[in-house]
Amino acid sequence: MKHFVTLLVAVMATMTMVQAEILKKVQVGDLYYNLDTEKQTAEIVAPVNNKLKELTIPTSVTYENVPYSVTGIGETAFYRCDSLVSVVIPEGILYINDAFHACFSLQSVSIPASVNYIKERPFYLCLSLLSVDVSPDNTNYSSRDGVLFDKNQTKLIRYPAFKEGDYTIPGTVTSLEEEAFATSLLLTSVTIPNTVTRIPEGAFRECGRMAHIGFPEQLTEIAPWAFTDCRSLKSINIPESVTTIGFDAFSRCDSLTTVYIHSGVTSLGDIEGNANGSAFNACKGLMSINVAPDNPNFCSIDGVLFSKDRKTLWQFPCGRKGGYSIPYGTETISSYALYKSDSLRTVTIPSTVTRVEPLAMGYCHTLDSVICYAETLPATNWIDHVGNDIFSASHQVKLFVPAQSVEAYQAAKSWNLVAAILPISANQVEVPEIVLTPGTSSVAVVWPAVKDAETYELIIRDENGNTICTLVFGSDGVLRTIAFHAPARNNAPRQTQAVGFSFTLTGLESGTTYSYTLTSKDIDGKVLDTATGSFTTQTPMGMEDINDDRQGYKMLRNGQLLILRDGKTFNALGIELR
Predict the structure, then answer these.
(1) 8 Å CB contact between 124 and 183
(2) Phi first, then psi: what are they for 18, rounded to 5°?
(3) What backbone phi and psi angles, to 5 degrees, belong to 414?
(4) Residues 529 and 568 in one domain
(5) d(CA 401, CA 409)
(6) Do residue 142 and residue 69 come from a single domain?
(7) In this structure, are residues 532 and 517 in contact, taking their beta carbons and an 8 Å threshold?
(8) Are residues 527 and 559 in the same domain?
């Protein structure tokens, strides 16, 4: 029995060896082949010398006196044969895999009638390709003006990368192959027919001269990387029918200055593994992203893209210069939100932020400092490998955090790889929103700085709507002019704060309700932001109104009599001080 088992194992091993020898990589002439000894067919797998300039593929080869029919061109068979100018493909070839990838000098290809299968992305990075011609007798493929289609011309498979000028896709086309136009460096504009409803992944990536794209009216999806590196694309008019725009769909489109998101867009830059992705990252000229007011998922705050509830920062237009203060109330800074904002120097993160995704401020080469008011370390989707931290920068970024939180930030890999982490100084104050604190005859106003604001105009009105006074502050928060329409006095401006300003106006009537309007304007007088509201000054409370059955503690500070009682501080008039 033991001998029988041994014999059986030997037989099985022999059969395995025979099976393994059915396909052999052998050299015949200038090419290597895989040979199917059972079917007597050959597949081209590589050239012997990848510096071939011209090639005529044989219809058959002979190896060890056995003839083999050449029926296919294998995966990456001629990859980076960058001297190859022309290829003659004979009848009898049944399939062409991704065989001519990065043949930079290849100018033309003729496909015979026998070819019944061409793998996706044929002729990718064939940067000199002028035409792909298909035999009229081919039952699976066709060509028109050198462009490769399926037989019925309902799918556009490959546009030759060196074909120059404008192009209108035929009206018969209903779909595009992935990367169909990719690396078409001389293409200047494309018009897509209304029969196309989806632009697939990478369809127009790296079309460096394409300045205009005519979108179809019934388009519903723009897939990831669809227009990546289209650096001459100056404007895009995304149809209202679009619901999905994929991750990196328009990344590095450096000539884009503004983007408008219609109300129907429900998915924008989603990427697996992160809270959010970005469809418009690293667009160096992008200054604003605007959103239709009735979009249910997204909104724009000062040209910056946020979720509808304003809790998630999706995308900062990275063409903007200077500093950016993330609005108070933001909770999440998504992946790639400020990615490659190369003119950004400072970022202020409010205390409301609880999550900062990897690469949120990645590769911002001019970023000098970040002030983060979050005492509790914001969570991240940290993955332990290089290039997935918050900054991923090659230079030191000064990160200022609350003094009691410095050690926590220093211990977190997602924050500490390149940042010098320092405590926020005592005179840096977070100003989340406009706050008015009324006294008996005064009101203290604290307001956040507005990007690009040249002036801040504060108007105070009485209960009847009559203007009491108008104050105009400069971009630094310092009072420029004041006009009184009733008796009033004003104090000198208070300290300029980290992300806002403060001022106290005195001389108001006690126990009176006032309304206010605070308007910020740019250098041309354009209104950037307006805040309105009301406040009521306090009613004086004499010393006799303070509860006499509890003894207060009197103290003299800065020449002023103060009374401490029940944890509160009162002045000599009985007015509570804050």
Answers:
(1) yes
(2) -65, -45
(3) -65, -20
(4) no
(5) 8
(6) yes
(7) yes
(8) no
Q: How many residues does the chain have?
A: 578
Average pLDDT of the segment spanning 391-409: 85
Cβ proximity of 378 and 354 under 8 Å: yes
* Residue 224 in domain: no
Burial 544-564 (b: 16+ CB within 10 A, else e): eebeeeeebeeeeeeeeebbe
The two tokens of residue 296 are: 């249910």
Numbers of helices and strands, H then E, in the chain: 3, 47
Reference 440, options 539, 536, 506, 514; nearest CA is 539
- Same-domain check for residues 551 and 522: no
Cα→Cα distances 559→69, 274, 442, Å:
107, 59, 21
Beta strands, E only, 115-241:
117-118, 131-134, 141-144, 147-150, 155-158, 165-168, 175-176, 187-191, 198-199, 212-214, 221-222
Q: What is the pLDDT of residues 336-389, one digit of tens each?
A: 899 999 888 889 898 999 999 888 888 888 888 899 999 999 988 765 544 567
8 A C-beta contact, residue 229 and residue 250: no
Of the chain, the percentage scoring pLDDT greater than 70 comes to 83
Q: Is the pLDDT of residue 550 over 90?
A: no
Q: Would you place residue 172 in the very low, low, confident or very high pLDDT band (cuts 50, 70, 90)?
A: very high
Specify the residue for token string 């001459």.
Answer: 232
Q: Does one domain contain both 43 and 155?
A: yes
Residues of the domain holding 566: 543-577
Query: Which strands, in side-by-side order, build the sheet including 513-521?
Result: 479-484, 467-474, 455-461, 513-521, 527-536
pLDDT tens digits along 447-480: 887 877 889 999 998 888 888 889 998 877 778 8
- 85 with 109: CB under 8 angstroms? no
How far is residue 504's CA from residue 485's CA, in Å, rounded to a whole number?
17
- DSSP-derived letter for residue 90 is P
User: Are 156 and 39 in the same domain?
Assistant: yes
Which of 419, 420, 372 is closest to 393 using CA atoms? Answer: 419
Tens digits of per-residue pLDDT, 117-154? 998 888 989 999 999 999 999 999 999 999 999 999 99
Q: Can you say how many angstroms the Cα of residue 180 is from the centroid of all Cα atoms in its chain?
A: 24
CA distance 571 to 560: 8
Among residues 140, 161, 182, which one ends one of the domains? 161
* Calpha distance 441→451 (Å, rounded): 32
Q: Which amino acid is at 434?
A: I
283 contacts 253 by C-beta, under 8 angstroms: yes
